[in-house]
Structures are given as structure tokens and as C-alpha cells.
Amino acid sequence: MILTSLDQVAAVIPESGRVLVGIVGPPGAGKSTIAAQLVELLPSAALLPMDGYHLPQARLVELGRRDRMGAPDTFDIEAFVATLAELRFSGETVTAPGFDREVEEPVPAAIAISPEKRVVVVEGNYLLLGEEWAAVAPLLDVSFSVDLPHDVRIDRLIARHVRFGKTPDAAAAWALGPDEHNALLIGATAARADHIIRLG
Known about the structure:
By secondary structure, the protein is an alpha/beta fold.
């Protein structure tokens, strides 16, 4: 189903029990903004961004993956899956890492989600990817893929990279290089989502 408003998105989220909601989309699609707005709209909701599970810079350098940070194998997938499982089954307050975009490093235990938060909105690129990420989708109750025109997405992505310190040329190179490679992987998973979000 294609949804064109946040009210429509909220209407298809289950109304009882702990619910994990997945918001997926390529870099620059607006999934972080949509996820944050959805949390504001829903009662008793919390946000869990996947960005906190980036491997630390030093580890990426050690593995030879720093130049493609954001690729599927540059995240701590096991820790991410463990957090989702804990949210679903533990009934206790769950802590999770945040992410500092200015230094591009995870921030341990920056997020705490209490049992009272009935809905947990999980946003990230690879929630529906499969392979090493295959354990994620079964832990989600409902999933949404964000759809945005390619040129609009690229423009937004370049502007975001500039905002966080890259030169315009470096921002464009990253957006059209590593980010676009990842976007193609993510785009191939859109059909696995329960719904498509297509806002203005």
C-alpha cells in the first residue's frame, strides 16, 4: 500500500502490545525525519536509529572499510539484532547507542527505551536487506519503505554532508559514490516492505 501522509502511516500500526515499526530507505530519503515525526505523532513511542550501530572509526580503519562507511558490513549487526530482541522480549528498559554525526562516531548507551514506550520506531538503511541482516525483519511488526525522487534525494544528501563539514565537492563525491552504491542495495529491498511512504 502507498501511504501519502503520516496519519495514514499511523493508522496501519498495530494498536496493542509492544510494536516494532521499521522505517527503511536510502541515504537522503528522509526516513530519519519521518521516523522522528511519527514518534511525535504516536502516544508512548520511542525512536531507535540504526546509526548508533556504526562500527567505531578505529575499527573501520583496522578492517579497511573506512572509505565506505555506511555499507552493510560497517555496522555491528549482532548488537543491533540483540537490541531489537531485547526490546521485544525483555520487558525491561533497554539502552542503545546513539550517533554523533559531527565526529561520525557511535555514542554508547545514549538512548534508553522504557517498557512504557509501547511503539518503537526503528529507522535505518538495511532493515530489510537479508543475508547477514536477515534476523532483523522477523523482529519488526510492520515495515515502511520511504520513496523519494532520485534527484531530490541526492540534493538533500549533498546538503546534509555539507552541513556536517564536507566541502561541496567532497559531499557530491560521497553522495554519488558510497551513498549511491548503498542506495541501490536498499532500493532492491523496497518490495519487501509492508507499505511504501511517498510524502509530498
